[in-house]
Amino acid sequence: MELTMNQLAVAYLVSAVLFIFALKGLTHPATARRGNLFGMLGMAIALIATLLGAEVQDYLLIIIAGVIGAVIGIRVALRIQMTAMPQLVAALHSFVGMAAVLVAIGTFINRAQAGTLNTVLMGELSAGVVIGAITFTGSVIAFTKLQGIMSGAPIKFMGQHLLNAAIAIATVLLAVNFAMTGNVFSLLLMTLLAFVLGGTLIIPIGGADMPVIISMLNSYSGWAAAATGFTLHNNLLIIVGALVGFSGAILSYIMCRAMNRSIINVVFGGFGTDASGDSAGAVAAEKGVKSASVEDAVYWMEDANKVIIVPGYGMAVAQAQHALKEMMELLEARGVEVKFAIHPVAGRMPGHMNVLLAEADIPYDHVLEMDEINPEFQGAAVALVVGANDVVNPAAKEDPTSPIYGMPILEAGRANQCYFLKRSMRPGYSGVDNLLFYQDNTSLIFGDAKDTIEGIVSSLKGSGH
Known about the structure:
Distance between the termini: 69 Å
Largest sheet: 6 strands, parallel
Shape: globular
Oligomer: single chain
Structural class: alpha/beta
Number of helices: 18
Helix content: 55-70%
Strand content: 5-15%
Order of helices and strands: HHHHHHHHHHHHEHHEHEHEHEEH
Low-confidence stretches: 272-285
């Protein structure tokens, strides 16, 4: 069965509408599952329609590649931990980038042999190669930083910005030359420089900015897909690429606003190093901190009016979300109101904490974003910070010398009592000392977050009521 051009266009239109519904569904946890189903259905229709198109003449290589990809994808999906999801997303972005590069180069070779090259097509190929190559190496660097293969701290050197600017200008000039002349040397050098630029753009970015960078690379991968769509004259790929590109760009903008920073500052700021000089954090460190036990936390929480839980990457590492669900149920059985506070850049990727809490079946109406929950800290008996750090650091409001100064935070320190679950006194991913550790109403409970929460659960069960 072979689809006509009109039938293929209708199938692509249906797929595009389903992809738009998918994005709409993913805007809220309550509709995210439905959004995923829409996306899966849209992709299935798009794949089947493409395979039944007149341009597909041989299915053997497609079947072989599809089977290999399916086996690898299923194995990865079954084995991947939620804590490793950010680096998996970065790795998948790199695949999109490399695919764009290979499609562009392959199209150039085929069209050159057929003698059907033109300036417009060459411009499309240039865009596909440059965007795809930058996306590939940038995503690889992000993966290595998130995986711990490379340090999460910014890697900076003298003249870095000038080097990046020189590479970018040279890449653009080579792209123009290739589009106008079809010079193979320009194509090869342009591709190489774009690969280098992707790496040099991402290595100076610190760990605290990784959620924004993952979102930004998601946008890049969308534009790479759109460029590939122009090259292949595939309208659906253009639409999908544009959707991903714009949605990733909008999400990056939203997250930058949540950090009170511009995207330029994220890309070129090197955020993630310690502040120099005698900052408020250095002064506060001399005062020491108070440590507490599980029993202390239970004493404050079991008769509290409200407990607000602030999850962070430490919760993800410890896989403590299920224990938190049980603790929430025990507290609510005692009449305690329990809510979860989510910062837009908590974790290592956008929505990381929301996904983990949903995995534990924590009701969506218990999970509130920063602007909604901040006014409630003032009246809460306890704020329980589970592995978060930078997103509750008062240095963002109190210390002008801090790299995170001006970033909106979850105001956990305004609760009557704040308990901070930490493995050690090491600072967060940004490397900035947390002033909340030293507030009079803050106590640290050291140890694995899951073990600590399970200890709280056992104490709540044992105390009865």
